[in-house]
Q: What sequence folds into this?
């Protein structure tokens, strides 16, 4: 009887982990997109001036879509200032523009985030925002390199860690409950 309870205590967390894995797989299956910046890299903006960044959004890296909500978020690595701007479809299907004003000069990290789709590459090379009136300079490499942690995957990881903790905690709880029973059984046999 005691072993059946232990197996039940073990099966419940295992079933929860399996269900979470299946739900995560279902949620992420087919729901991804890529963004390609117009010209391969964004313009070199001036601090305090509105700049426009164009990009193409492709579901599964192939099909242009214009129904997704896309947000640009950026952060100045020196000052910690941040900006957020909503992109909007413009022109042919799949093409978006985002108008953003970076308030200060310096190096800005930035990413595109989508509401419904998981972005395969969402973080782009840092951009240098020039002080107002500074001479134009190239923006550097045009190759996109993912550097951030995707929030959906981070949440799935936290959920799995919580479930694993609950699973391991069930072992600890069983031992405490069994200790008095085992001691009583030993006393009864002696």
A:
């Amino acid at each position: 009887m005691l072993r059946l309870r232990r197996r039940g205590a073990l099966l419940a967390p295992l079933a929860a982990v399996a269900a979470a894995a299946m739900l995560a797989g279902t949620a992420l299956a087919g729901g991804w997109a890529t963004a390609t910046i117009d010209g391969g890299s964004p313009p070199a903006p001036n601090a305090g001036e509105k700049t426009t960044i164009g990009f193409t959004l492709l579901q599964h890296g192939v099909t242009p879509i214009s129904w997704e909500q896309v947000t640009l978020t950026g952060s100045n690595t020196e000052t910690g200032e941040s900006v957020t701007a909503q992109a909007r479809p413009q022109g042919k299907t799949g093409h978006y523009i985002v108008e953003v004003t970076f308030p200060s000069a310096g190096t800005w990290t930035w990413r595109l985030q989508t509401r419904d789709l998981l972005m395969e590459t969402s973080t782009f090379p840092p951009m240098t925002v020039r002080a107002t009136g500074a001479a134009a300079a190239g923006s550097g490499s045009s190759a996109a390199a993912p550097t951030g942690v995707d929030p959906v995957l981070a949440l799935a990881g936290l959920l799995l860690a919580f479930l694993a903790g609950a699973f391991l905690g069930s072992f600890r709880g069983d031992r405490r409950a069994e200790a008095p029973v085992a001691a009583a059984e030993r006393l009864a046999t002696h």
Q: What stands out?
A: The longest helix spans residues 151-189. The mean pLDDT is 73. The beta strands are 32-37, 50-59, 63-64, 70-76, 82-89, 95-101, 106-114, 118-119, 123-129. Helices lie at 2-28, 151-189.
